[in-house]
Amino acid sequence: MDEIFNQYHVYIMKNKTIHTLILLFVMFMGVNTITAQSAKMHTGTSTEISAADRASKSLDKWNKRLKFSQNQRTQMEPLLTDFYTEMKAIKSNTSLSEEQKKSEAKKVRQDFRSKVETILSPSQMERMKKFRQSRSKKK
Fold first, then answer.
1. Which residues of 107-133 are buried (b: 16+ CB within 10 A; e: fewer)?
2. I want to staple 55 with a disulfide (CB 3.0 to 4.6 A). Which of 32, 68, 79, 80 is the partner?
3. Which distant-in-sequence residues (6+ apart) come within 8 Å of 133 by Cβ?
4. Cβ contact 60:77 at 8 Å
5. What does DSSP assign to residue 95?
6. Given its phi and psi angles, is residue 44 left (phi above 0), alpha (psi -120 to 50 degrees) or beta?
7. How confident is the model at residue 48 (pLDDT cuts 50, 70, 90)?
8. What torsion, rounded to 10 degrees, do the Cα atoms 74, 77, 78, 82 define?
């Protein structure tokens, strides 16, 4: 009987050790995650892309489809930056209702499109129209 008790005791002790190690590991990972999030909040760093970076990426994508001239690139870059800045401001404006945000965003998009139309050539406008149509079919 003593031998069975000793074997049972050894079994329990081994499992406690394993459970303790697992618990310590989970606690360590949780503390690291909380510390990283806290540091991120205090330093103000964010994974959010700036309007200028987003504009630059969009400009590259548009350029692949529409083949901008250098003059067009120069004109489009500030338009895109302003567009993304305005859209971000609308999205983060807590004094607007969701309906007001949608309405304001629609106005900004329409204004942006009308400015873009003055920059693009007729053939580029046609390619843009086809792209928008193909994109709307996917939705």
1. ebeeebeeebeebbeeebeeebeeeee
2. 80
3. none
4. no
5. T
6. left
7. confident
8. 160
User: Which residue type does 128 have?
Assistant: M
pLDDT of residue 60 exceeding 90, the answer is: yes
Tokens of 27: 């606690």
Residue 127 to residue 135: CA distance in whole angstroms: 12
Task: Give me 7's structure tokens.
Answer: 């074997």
Range 49-56 contact pairs with CB under 8 angstroms and sequence separation of 24 or more:
51/81, 51/82, 51/84, 51/85, 51/88, 52/81, 54/80, 54/84, 55/80, 55/81, 55/83, 55/84
Whether 119 has a pLDDT exceeding 70, the answer reads yes
